[in-house]
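User: quick one
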Amino acid sequence: MSKKILSANFDLPDSHALRVYEETGGYRAIRKILGTPGDEIIEEVKKSGLRGRGGAGFPAGVKWGFVPKDTDQPKYLCVNADEGEPGTFKDRQIMEQNPHMLIEGILICSYAVGIERAYVYVRGEYVFQIQRLAAAIAEAYGSGYLGKNILGSDFNLDVVIHRGAGAYICGEETGLIESLEGKKGQPRAKPPFPAVVGAFGCPTVVNNVETLSSLPFIINEGASAYAAIGTAKSTGTMLFSVSGMVEKPGVYEEAFGVNLVEFIEERAGGVLGGKALKAVIPGGSSAPILTADEARNTVLDYEALAEAGSMLGSGAIIVLSEDVCIVKALQVITRFYSHESCGQCPPCRHGTYWLARIADRIENGRGEPDDIDLLLSICPEMMGRTICVLCDAAAMPTESYVKKFREEFEEHIRLKKCPMDGAPRLLGIE
Amino acid sequence: MDKQVAEKIAFNEQSERRYQEALEMYPTKEAALLPVLWIAMDQFGALPTEVLEYVSSRLDLPPVRVFSAVEFYTMFYREPRGRYHIQVCRNLSCTLRGSEQLMGLLEGKLGIQPGETTEDGNFSIETAECLGSCGTAPVMRVNDTYYEDLTIEKLEKIIEGCLGGRSSSELLG
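Assistant: Done. Structure below.
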């Protein structure tokens, strides 16, 4: 049974409009908490078990709790709307279909932490989503939900949209902050963490769009109501982005704890064309791949996917059918990480380049027998050695593709070509 | 661009207003760099050296800071693009749904390779990494508009629309 918290309004006509949001109980949560001490709100969010939906899965309330209370500096909220993890397309859905839910989430976080300025960092390509969000922000200012003395209280908040300009690494929270400050988006060494030294040298909360959008429900219904959904450690629901070789790709909200393959079959219509399932990438392209059998034996939550040797990540499920070449998939994703490496750490700058180059030559029939072990020897050298996790995000899946589908790599090298050359093809081209 | 033109580079009235608004959004002048580069792209169409020098002088930033930022981000262009700039996603979900064939069709139709512009200046094409539209793969952008669930027929209509001079948001209309 699918539970709708985030997507409840998605199908309503004009779901993006303030009127519709208000008619469905919108901005009730912010009215409810005005006057309550911020610490109590933080405790409530901690109790809800809400974890970051951008990929890392860090408990949101705990993150807020790291922000120093006794500081003279301004505090900032950076909303991470730089959705770039390949396979992920759910934050855009929120900005398109219910931007006011995000704005109310921003209000709740800002009120609890004592923030008066929030920046929404939206990836540069999302022009339509930026327009939608900007219109919603203007509506919110017009109705007293943003600006000075919000709803007659002494709480002030300004929300500013900051448009990115094409760089995956700006989705990393300190890369995002650097970019917001007008620099190249090269991540910072941590500590200090952004909660202490973030944007413009000030304490900063960085939260994903979906994380913040979960807050109005938690405030309205209570932390225990939220924690009752899902599993003991993975509470609530998540927007899963399903793409690849499935009948009905799309964004589907689901409570944590459902079987991965049953979810693909029941919600996304199963594998495209009734083909057999070969593998599933469960949490965006950075997640290690699961074989069909592994996918059948796991459920969708943070713990189960970690136990299966992968991760929930951003909840982006990419489905690979029997007619998909795993070497081709590796060629595509390693090229991506090589392209997106910011270049400051040598293991990443060189490692991603070589993974991409070796995967490319194997796929194109120029691989040498030693290349498979060469790939496997590079990966451990890339893990845990860099400022941010982009390098790990390239090495982890690479290792899993090669180990779990080694025979496909061997076949490419033996045949000196891709046995599925050119597959899959654009629908309509045979 | 010759020196005379270069000396005339300045924000027009609308850009100047947006520039002043951008400065107010951040506690430091430097932080306005990305928005100001967007304003410059909108007015000048691209970011040649003269425009970047102008931006660096307006923001009191060393030119190297402005140039290195522009090189870092893929959406800032030093050279003008085609009237219709087409970006085809080449990441995994789009590849699975045939984006390589899509790009091949475009190359054949337009007679150019990714990174090139047609001689008449009408079209430029390039590959893009994940555009965040994987559920409607394969996908491409024409200027600022997404075209999703692409098929050969849709692609033909989009190109026809471009040749008919339609705006990038109405190519299928």
